[in-house]
Amino acid sequence: MTQDNKGKSGRNPRSPARAVALPRPPGLALDWDVPGWRDWLLRCLAQETGQRRLFPWLAVCFGIGVLLFFQAEKPALWAPLGGLALCGVSAVWLRKSLFGLVLSVGLAAVLAGFAAGVVRTHNVAAPVLMRIVIAPVTGFIESVEDREQGRRILLRVASLQGVAEAERPRLVRVSVRKGEGLSAGEFVAGTVRLLPPPQPAWPGGYDFARDAYYKGIGAVGSFTGAVRRIDPPTQPDWRLRLAARVDEARNALTHRIASSIGGAAGGVGAALVTGKRGLIGEPTSDVLRAAGIYHIVSISGLHMVLAAGTFFWLVRALLVLSPSLALFWPVKKIAAVAAMLGAIAYCIFSGSDVATERSLVMTLVMFGAVLADRPALSIRNLSIAALVVLAREPEALLGPSFQMSFGAVAAMMTLVPLMQGRSSKNASADLIGKALAWAARAVCGLLTTTLVASLATAPFAAYHFQNLNPYGLVGNGLALPLVSLVVMPAAVLGVLAYPFGLDEPIWKLMGVAVTQVLDVSAWVGSFSGSTVVVPALGAGALVLLSVGLVALTIPASQLRWLALVPAGAGLALAAHPQRYDIYVDRDGTGAAIRNLRGELTLVGKPSGFVVEQWLRADGDGRGARDPSLRHAARCDRLACVVEAGAQRTVAFVHEPAGFAEDCRRAAVVITRLEAPAFCGAPVVLDRHALRERGATAIGLGSEAAEIRSVRRGREVVSWTGKARIAASPTRDGPRAARPVSELDWPGEEISSGEPD
Questions:
Q1: Which has the closest alpha carbon to 633: 688, 687, 685, 593?
Q2: Secondary structure of 590-614 as H, E, C letters
Q3: CA-CA distance, 155 to 173, in Å (whole number)?
Q4: What whole-number distance in Å separates Cα of residue 30 and Cα of residue 21?
Q5: Looking at the structure, do residues 566 and 440 belong to the same domain, yes or no?
Q6: Is the distance from CB of 538 to CB of 203 less than 8 angstroms?
Q7: CB-neighbour burial class of residue 31 (10 A; exposed 0-12, middle 13-18, buried 19+)
């Protein structure tokens, strides 16, 4: 933080600055005549350039390029690379002009992010299953994860009967109820039921298909019978052998910890060390989430700092035992190298999630600064970590792990020092006074970091999970001291004692502390309003709030006050979220319709997971099995009818005989059947329409219906016009939708060859 808080001259930036003492940035010309503003802006820009705060904006520009890639349609690699070369030439040409240089380098970073997305998508390209398949399969097991009911394995497919090699997925994720004895690296055979990776339950929802694509997973499903170990036709490559060894070691340690501790605390304790969260039951996860401390089971900064710090301390302590080594060898730098190697090994062992990679990069930069005799803690390190993670996995930018992890760390690095202020130099000299002062600083630091991190991650939690935990400050304040002072140190000692077989007492000690953490979480979670379900945040609100967070955390000058503009606009949009009136499942098995009381009414038989997604998106705290969900629907054996808003009737047809009546009186007809050609409702979502669109959400207006779908984007259908939306087959083939107006709205699909 030292270099970020001082300019090149070494002066404190908080001291009053005179306009005549701050030079005008070279190449920057501002000619507008606004009294005071030009001098203020020049002072701020001089402070930004003097403290080298332009570098972090490279990560922001790189991320913008990644976002642009995900909105593109089959982009070519030569285009961003060509633009990148032109920007490089222009940067050299304009190097004497600050404005020209910054513009060229920033645009180059945008194009580099775009190119990274193209390269990544090309490298992970693999076939994705297009239909449901039940067939014999053989393949190598890449990883095994224990679950509450059976096991889930990642299988590298060698053969899949009935599927051509060009269409055969490379990896499939399948569950097995009786998977005892299965381990990574084995070649197995069995019969599987495979489905295409599911797409979002509603437009804007979690897209498992996208995440699966970038992990190389082309299908999901389960084994329908026994799984047999057989001799492999060929030997696995070195990557598979290495992944199998690492996964086997992780599972062995997971079982050791879970069995030593026992119960729910055993699953949590194992996850804290190995990152394997399959043994954490859903009730335990709900308890941790309600208290706002579920983040402790994600291998991130706290875990990485303790692991690397332990290596650093041990190596340095051992080396200084020798006077000759301590006097003539760079002991601190040798210990830093050992800590870097230990951190890399721990990252690989724990599964290399986004938060873990971010922590690893920041740890490596910090110890690398020790090797270079430079201060390490700064916003630049976070920017380097973001660049490395996005260059390796550009798709991580769209996920909650990246957004919440980097957002929380950036906010803490910027705001916590401002909130805490400077420590008093007149601290008490007696031992008790020093102890009390240390305790007060520790408590203050814990509360401020928790508060800042909670505020910074709240928009992302509302967007991705549709819930907030108001008592997270209390939960973290009570649980994190146990985690930091007992659980994690015991975890480090347990890992060191594990190869010697002396680890069981340590795990039992850690289990006592983990049990206390769960008790605290259950107590906090029992508070009324511990979990607040909020309507899904719109993409516009999330973008504005993210821009506000970036503008608040990167600048070192008073320019950070400009963050109030996008943050205020984002909060205004968040206060009035768009709520759809109808949610339709991707295959038409069910729908949720807003009734005249303003609540969602359930029709059909959608899965419980899909219903939970709809309710959360609407800000509805009811469960999927709540009987009130079906009270407003009038159903018979042919169809269900719901009186919706805008004086419109919505019909969900079960049997073909129901079309004759419902197509006449309903404004919206939903069915998983094939609607007849005579159906004259303005909006008809039948089997073929849903096959084209996927999961669909509809907003009912007084003049028209706004339809958003995962695959087709946005469509508008007038109630009074002759146009209608449908896709039922006719003699001339499938009938295309004919909306009144159709806008080019980017959906959740990606241009990577992912199937519709």
A1: 593
A2: EEEEEECCCCEEEEECCCHHHHHHH
A3: 6
A4: 18
A5: yes
A6: no
A7: exposed
Angle, in degrees to the nearest 10, between helices 431-464 and 400-420 = 140
Annotate 407-445 with DSSP letters as a single string: HHHHHHHHHHHHHH-PPPSS---SHHHHHHHHHHHHHHH
Let me know whether 191 and 254 are in one domain.
no
Are the beta carbons of 531 and 469 closer than 8 angstroms? yes
Phi, psi of 102 (to 5 degrees): -65, -40
CB 376 within 8 A of CB 370: yes
The answer as to whether 586 is a domain residue is: yes
Q: Determine if residue 164 is left, alpha or beta; phi over 0 gives left, psi from -120 to 50 gives alpha, anything else beta.
A: beta
Of 621, 464, 612, 609, nearest to 537 by C-alpha is: 464
Q: Are 662 and 640 in contact (CB under 8 A)?
A: no
Instruction: Based on the fold, state whether residues 560 and 705 are members of the same structural domain.
Output: no
* β-pair partners for 552: none
- pLDDT, tens digit, 9 for 90 and up, residues 680-726: 889 999 999 999 999 999 999 888 899 999 988 889 988 875 445 65
Q: How far apart are CA 369 and CA 678, in angstroms?
A: 73
Residue that has been written with the tokens 């009270």 in this structure: 631
Instruction: Please give the DSSP secondary-structure letter assigned to residue 459.
Output: H
**Residue 186's pLDDT is what?**
92
Distance CA 409, CA 304 (A): 14
pLDDT at 421: 54
A 10 A CB-CB count for 504 gives 16
* Identity of residue 715: E
Instruction: Say whether both 571 and 431 belong to one domain.
Output: yes
Domain termination site, one of 526, 558, 577: 577
Helix, strand and coil content of the chain, in percent to the nearest 5, comes to: 50, 15, 35
Q: What angle do CA 149, 152, 158 make, to 5 degrees?
A: 145
3-state secondary structure of 196: coil
Going by their DSSP bridges, the two strands 600-604 and 683-685 should be labelled as unpaired
Rounded Cα distance, 325 and 417, in Å: 37
To the nearest 10 degrees (0 to 180), the angle between helices 238-261 and 263-274 is: 150
The secondary element (H helix, E strand) that includes residue 118 is helix 98-124
What does the DSSP 8-state code read for residue 347? H
Q: What whole-number distance in Å separates Cα of residue 695 and Cα of residue 689? A: 10
Whether 677 and 728 map to the same domain: the answer is yes
Residue 222: both structure tokens together: 């389960």
**pLDDT tens per residue, range 468-503:** 888 888 888 888 888 888 888 888 889 889 999 999
* Angstrom distance (rounded) from CA 365 to CA 343: 12
| Residue 719, SS3 per DSSP | coil
252 and 374 inside one domain: no
Longest dimension (CA), the chain: 95
pLDDT digits (tens, 9 = 90+) for 225-270: 889 999 998 888 888 888 888 899 999 999 999 999 999 999 999 9
In terms of residue numbers, what domain contains 341? 303-396
660: CB partners within 8 A, 6+ apart: none
Give dist(CA 177, CA 330) in Å, integer. 55
Question: In terms of domains, do 622 and 505 share one?
Answer: no
Residue 401 near residue 409, CB atoms below 8 Å: no
What is the helix (H) or strand (E) element at residue 706, kind and residue range? strand 704-709
Q: How many residues does the chain have?
A: 756
Question: What letter does residue 736 receive in the DSSP assignment?
Answer: P
Are 497 and 648 within 8 A, CB to CB? no
Q: How far apart are CA 269 and CA 504, in angstroms?
A: 13
If one compares 756 and 380, the residue with the highest pLDDT of the two is 380
Q: How far apart are alpha carbons 285 and 289 in whole angstroms? A: 6
* pLDDT of 351: 77
How many structural domains are present in the chain?
6
